[in-house]
Write a structure and sequence with these properties.
heterodimer; A: about 425 residues; alpha/beta; four-stranded parallel β-sheet; 8 strands; B: about 400 residues; mainly alpha; 2 domains; three-stranded antiparallel β-sheet; two-stranded parallel sheet; globular
Chain lengths: ~425, ~400
């Protein structure tokens, strides 16, 4: 009798979880879709996000027999494709899972990790359950502990991420990638060969090429596409094969090219151009880009690891032996990565300055997830550096819930108003004169 | 403790090199009965030519043997290694398939054509076109024992300074003017474009890439350890003549150019060194260039040369691909974030960094302010073009 009742309780909990989860995901997806000015060819990305979060289905792995879960940009997708598996990025932005994870993880842990813990606790998310192996680069303390928690439930491998990027660190990381080969081969049953690795380089390289085209087009005209839409595209990359994603992005690029030729933009107004940086923005936690664009700004660029930065740098093969390719992967994983886990991360400031120049940014929004210490540490330095350039910065701390939305809205609105005041002083003086 | 050990090893290596260089004439590699310095086109076509080629063939055979032995040894070690045993076959076995490779750049093709043409000129040029320019001196490691090369090579008089000052004043002036003129005009681009020893090393590297053999990766520490050795070799290069030695018995370049030109020169330590150079450059591109004394001298003037490597620090993402690609291990090229000019004393202008840079316009090679080779994402990704075409076709 007792067991039956607990079972039904569990079932009820699960049902409630699924209901809530699909509702929030559907709501945010709808809000992204409702934003004006989406380019043609967005459907595959919307469909993927819908499939994963609303329909709660497996990722469409196509011809790949397995999926391998990854966190962070340091896991080289090339190796996973070479093992005949599809990498799925499991960094989560789910509010419902967050509230479950809140009870398991300590209060000060970051919400992303709590959401991951929550999904694994409920065991209801197919993308998580389907993984043959999870690869967790240890980029912060939270990731280290979540790796321990997850390893009870599935096969898991940690990658030690060094604190600096010297030659020895790269060599050490390469050795770890060799270990990863072994783990991947065990998990998938497919051997990694020179041929399969080169093919994987081609697969990922194609997607990266389309991404670089996408960003190059975006740079040409500041109002070409809304940041929320580009965020949806880049978030969908986590759950699509590189080939499918590249193909879908190719269509979007085509429609963007057409827009440039016709000189069509998202809006005719001069919206303040905002750069979004800091902690990752993971669907469905897209409230900040949505709020920016709903209150009259536009996210013209982003420097987040689930966004443009994550897949930007290609692995350049400088030496075509197998070891050379492994080296290229290790090198790409560490050297260009502006993750604050590295002790000296001054290159992130250069990267932000570069984005500001290229995208004609007027203001920077620094997003910090509550408990994400490494990003919070870097805020001060970036504020100082941007102060020298005269670019306003605002630090927005948020959590995975909807309680802080109104507060965020007020702050974002004020920030955008501030930029608008800076932007059009001549208009105001002209009005006064006529008065 | 560790630094003490390093100093002792460095000193021992330097002393060993000095002893080898000084007693080079006592260690024969291959001795001809008579050293015949006369050559002609007829001789090149006769059977005698084969006789002069013998030492070169021995060198090639020995280095091939050495390379194969090293590859086998590495395979054995990799199989025994606890961590790598599983991927030992991946690393050392024969690899099928093709790694993505970008289309050859025009710059690279031109560089290879110039290198091959110049090496040809330095070996057989005098025989075919006469010795009209032989009073000009170019600072390349092409052996002056080959009396038939088109232009003089500065290395002989730089390593025999006592003989230089016995020459008539006009010759001394001409030597300095032409040598310095070339250094100012081209800088170490001479190493990357003209030097025949550089060509040999690049060919060895090409062979390695064709066979997909795993190379030896140098890191900062190893380059750091080589630096004192490099300076010491420069010291020997300049000072040996005053101590009564002859650098030519030690120099590896002797083993190629005169022999190919049909001049039978007896080889001493240089023969052994050439084997080492060939083996070294097989596993590490341009291994000899990292210690080349002539290159070090040219490096002093790197601020003056018309060839420059320029960097747009704004576009750089510090991905380190340029550093990975650089045969000379110049790290500054990827860490620099302020200056636009990243020409380093060790840079040989081979353009490899530009070829491997994935950012548009981030790196470029300039000559007299004009860009001659610029990096671009499109060029890097041209290796993936087949895939792109495949998807384009599928769409339509």
């Amino acid at each position: 009798m007792m067991t039956k009742r607990t079972e039904t309780l569990k079932q009820r909990q699960d049902k409630r979880f699924i209901n809530k989860e699909t509702q929030t995901a559907a709501k945010y997806l709808r809000r992204v879709k409702e934003l004006s000015g989406a380019p043609d060819g967005m459907e595959p990305f919307y469909n993927t996000l819908e499939r994963i979060y609303v329909d709660m289905d497996y990722a469409d792995s196509g011809t790949y027999s397995h999926t391998v879960g990854t966190y962070c940009v340091m896991t080289p997708p090339e190796l996973i494709y070479a093992a005949g598996a599809m990498p799925v990025k499991l960094c989560s932005g789910n509010y419902t899972a967050f509230s479950v994870g809140d009870d398991i993880a300590p209060r000060d842990a970051c919400p992303l990790v709590k959401a991951v813990a929550g999904f694994k606790q409920t065991g209801l998310m197919p993308v998580y359950e389907d993984c043959s192996l999870m690869v967790v680069p240890i980029t912060c303390d939270c990731k280290k502990k979540i790796a321990g928690m997850l390893s009870d439930k599935c096969d898991l491998m940690t990658l030690h991420v060094p604190a600096s990027r010297n030659d020895e660190d790269i060599e050490e990381f390469t050795a770890q990638l060799y270990d990863l080969i072994e783990r991947l081969e065990n998990a998938t049953g497919n051997a990694i060969t020179y041929e399969s690795l080169s093919d994987a380089f081609r697969t990922v390289g194609y997607a990266q090429y389309e991404l670089s085209e996408f960003i190059r087009l975006k740079k040409q005209m500041p109002y070409l596409i809304r940041g929320s839409h580009s965020m949806a595209i880049l978030n969908a990359a986590s759950y699509m094969t590189a080939a499918d994603w590249g193909k879908a992005l190719h269509r979007v690029n085509g429609s963007l090219k057409k827009r440039i030729a016709e000189k069509k933009t998202v809006t005719s107004k001069k919206l303040p151009r905002i750069l979004l940086t800091g902690s990752p923005i993971v669907f469905p936690n897209v409230k900040i880009p949505l709020l920016i664009e709903e209150t009259g700004g536009i996210v013209a660029g982003d420097e987040t690891c689930m966004g443009e930065r994550g897949m930007w740098d290609p692995a350049v093969i400088t030496d075509n032996s197998f070891d050379g390719m492994m080296n290229a992967l290790a090198n790409r994983a560490l050297r260009p990565c502006p993750c604050p886990t590295f002790a000296d991360n001054s290159q992130r400031i250069y990267r932000i300055k570069q984005l500001i120049k290229e995208n004609q940014i007027q203001g920077v929004i620094y997003h910090v997830l509550r408990g994400c210490l490494v990003y919070d540490f870097e805020y001060k330095r970036i504020e100082d550096e941007l102060g020298k350039l005269g670019i306003p910065v605002i630090r927005l701390e948020s959590d995975y819930n909807e309680e802080d939305i109104e507060q965020l809205r007020i702050r974002i609105e004020a920030f955008i108003e501030l930029i608008k005041l800076k932007q059009e002083p001549e208009k105001i003086t002209a009005a006064r004169r006529s008065f | 403790m560790r630094s003490k050990k390093r100093i002792i090893i460095t000193v021992l290596v330097c002393v060993g090199i000095a002893a080898l260089a000084y007693f080079a004439w006592m260690i024969p590699f291959y001795i001809f009965e008579t050293n015949d310095f006369n050559t002609s086109i007829e001789k090149l076509l006769s059977l005698d030519y084969l006789k002069t080629l013998v030492p070169l063939l021995i060198i090639i055979g020995l280095s091939a043997l050495g390379i194969i032995l090293i590859v086998l040894l590495r395979r054995m070690l990799a199989k025994r290694d606890k961590n790598f045993s599983r991927s030992a076959n991946l690393r050392t076995g024969r690899a099928g398939g093709k790694a993505p490779k970008q289309k050859p750049a025009v710059f690279m093709i031109i560089r290879w054509i110039i290198m091959i043409a110049f090496a040809f000129m330095m070996i057989w040029g005098g025989l075919i076109f006469g010795l009209g320019m032989s009073s000009l001196s170019i600072p390349v490691l092409s052996c002056p024992w080959n009396t038939e090369q088109m232009t003089e090579s500065s290395c002989y008089y730089l390593s025999h300074l006592n003989e230089l000052f016995e020459l008539p004043i006009g010759s001394i002036l001409l030597f300095f003017i032409s040598t310095l003129g070339f250094i100012f005009l081209l800088g170490r681009a001479i190493c990357g474009f003209l030097c025949p020893v550089g060509l040999i090393q690049d060919i060895m590297d090409k062979i390695r890439k064709k066979t997909k053999t795993e190379g030896i990766k140098m890191n900062e520490k190893m380059y750091g350890a080589l630096t004192p050795v490099k300076w010491f070799i420069l010291l020997i290069f300049i000072g040996l003549c005053f101590a009564g030695g002859n650098f030519c018995n030690f120099c590896p370049a002797v083993a190629v150019s005169p022999i190919l030109a049909g001049i039978s020169t007896s080889l001493y330590v240089s023969g052994f060194l050439m084997v080492l150079v060939l083996m070294g450059s097989f596993f590490k591109r341009r291994a000899f260039c990292t210690v080349c004394p002539l290159g070090t001298i040219m490096g002093f003037f790197h601020k003056l040369s018309l060839f420059r490597v320029k960097k747009d620090c704004q576009s750089c993402t510090e991905c380190g691909a340029c550093y990975e690609a650089c045969p000379m291990g110049i790290k500054m090229i990827y860490t620099e974030r302020e200056k636009a000019d990243v020409t380093h004393a060790n840079c040989i202008m081979c353009g490899e960094c530009v070829r491997c840079c994935p950012e548009d316009n981030a790196l470029s090679l300039t000559f007299a302010g004009k860009k001659i080779y610029t990096s671009s994402r499109k060029k890097i990704m041209s290796g993936y073009e087949e895939v792109r075409n495949y998807y384009d076709d599928k769409k339509d």
